[in-house]
Amino acid sequence: MNSMRAGIHEPIEAKVLRILMVEDSPEDAELIELQLSKAGYQIAAVRVASESAMLKALANSEWDVIVSDYSVPGFGALPALKVLKRTGRDIPFIIVSGIISDEMAVAIMRAGAHDYLRKDNLSRLPSVIDHEMQEAANRQQTREMESTLRLHIAALDSAANSIVITDRTGTIQWVNAAFTKLTGYPATEAIGGNLRMLKSGKQDEQVYKDMWNTILSGAVWRGEIVNRRKDDSLYVEEMTITPVLSGDSTISHFVAVKEDVTARKQAEETLRRQASLIDLTPDAVMAWRMDGILTFWNRGAEALYGWRKDEAIGQLAHGLFQTKFPQALEQLEKRLKQTGSWSGELSHRTKDGREIVVLSRWLAQFDARGEVSEVLESNTDVTERKLTELALIRSEKLASVGRMAATVAHEINNPLTSAITALYLIRTDSALPESIQKNLVLAEQELRRVAHVSQQSLGFYREVGNMAVVNLEEVLDSILDIYEPRLRNKNISLQRRYQNTVGIFAAAGEIRQVASNIIANSIDALPQNGKLFVRLTGPQVQLGNRRMIRVTIADNGEGISSKDLPHICEPFFTTKQSIGTGLGLWVTSEMVKKHEGRLRIRSKSGEGTVVAFWLPTERRKGERKSI
């Protein structure tokens, strides 16, 4: 049983053939169906004999072939052909007729029939139908290809970029509308010509050689070329040339896509010049995206902050600077979006750790959607100006305090003198007990000390800017007298040593301030039971062979760390946290420099600090008497 089944072939499924018959004879229609069934077709047929019936059948179904008798009462092949043409459909139309002359056959073929045969030769019908259906399929494929080609040509012709198709030698075969717009050559002039007509004479010949070597090898070439339009104007185009291979894999054509980049190149050149100018400006100029990432960094920024361009670009801008904003960054960005700009002072930190103040100006760059895409920031270092302003403010405050102290000292001097005189007269009364006289002597001493402090305060005010010969021993002693209560409260041991001193030419008030600042710092740094050393050494040769007096103030206090020591004389730098202004040693340093002296600080954390400064004993020749 199995062997028998193995020898039986499965029936091949018959192909469905959808036939529209224009025929008035049912018998003839059956003969046609029978003949096609024998050829292996499964027939799905509808027979019509009038124009209305044919139109209905065409509207309701798809048909593979129309088989029509030449003559049908009230209808026939010619009217049926006209109906088919009105519908615009391409269906094989075959005439099968009993009697048809050659003249009739020629006429019907000219009218649009695809083939004809006599009813006594129906054996040919299957092959005729197969042939005409294949021809119809070919025609449909051709129409689709032509439609696709028209679509492609329309797309190429409407492309914004210039497109040129040439043969292997560079002869132009086709151009689109953008080519005419770019070059000024209409298609009628361009086609048949050679792309050499665009040569400007401004391009290096080696570029052309490289281009031809590349495309003739079958590779794609991309590059920029300076070309000349029909009106002799020059333009720069960015071009891609792709070789097209024929059926035998040889190059038959080239397709060139050209984009006019003249405006872009000019803009790039303008930007390059502007960038060069920006790079030369002394201000720090940078650009950053709204996510804060730096995208531009000029030489001025390198000089101000210390980071090279390759170190800065790609970094988070205000994270790099450790920026201190005058208000929340979100508020600044909100204002930037609203007004397009912002300016104000910011505190930045440089690569070497210095804190600087900059006048910062921000300019927003907007994208096509109106959103801020990038910010151009220009920063001017105003640290010195700010320091000067603070110094002036501090100086004015000191002057105000000095004036007030002078006023107070002046007002209390006369009552103090009277009180001291009165105490003296009382204590010299021999009738008073000895114990009372001792108390009166103590009271007189305290009043004299108050009078001394009053005189010192008046001296500070009167001697700030006047240049004169100053006795440093007296200056140091008077300052130590003022700080004597603080020394006593902390039980600090004071050692003074003055050797071979002479007077110096200086502003007494400023020298008092220098010594006072240093001594006050030492006292602040000293613990209970600490030691303070004050030394004054006679003329030594220092700084350009000038004779100098050296003042040394040393303590065994907490000292200054090696990290802080290099910055100790910088403005606003303090190791005293909230109680320090960071201006004392900076002012001290500036005043010593002003007197053409020298300041040196040595310290070790946990062991103490030694501050020494040298001052010239004589003024330079021609130096004015006041500063």
Give the arrangement of secondary structure elements.
Layout: H1 2-6, E1 15-22, H2 26-38, E2 41-48, H3 51-60, E3 65-68, H4 77-87, E4 93-97, H5 102-111, E5 115-118, H6 125-158, E6 162-167, E7 172-175, H7 177-183, H8 187-190, H9 205-216, E8 221-228, E9 234-245, E10 251-260, H10 262-280, E11 284-289, E12 294-297, H11 299-305, H12 309-312, H13 317-320, H14 329-339, E13 341-349, E14 355-366, E15 372-381, H15 383-427, H16 434-462, E16 467-470, H17 472-482, H18 484-489, E17 493-499, E18 504-507, H19 508-525, E19 531-542, E20 546-555, H20 584-594, E21 598-604, E22 608-616
Parallel strand pairs: 1-2, 1-3, 3-4, 4-5, 17-19
Antiparallel strand pairs: 6-7, 6-10, 8-9, 9-10, 11-12, 11-15, 13-14, 14-15, 16-18, 19-20, 20-22, 21-22
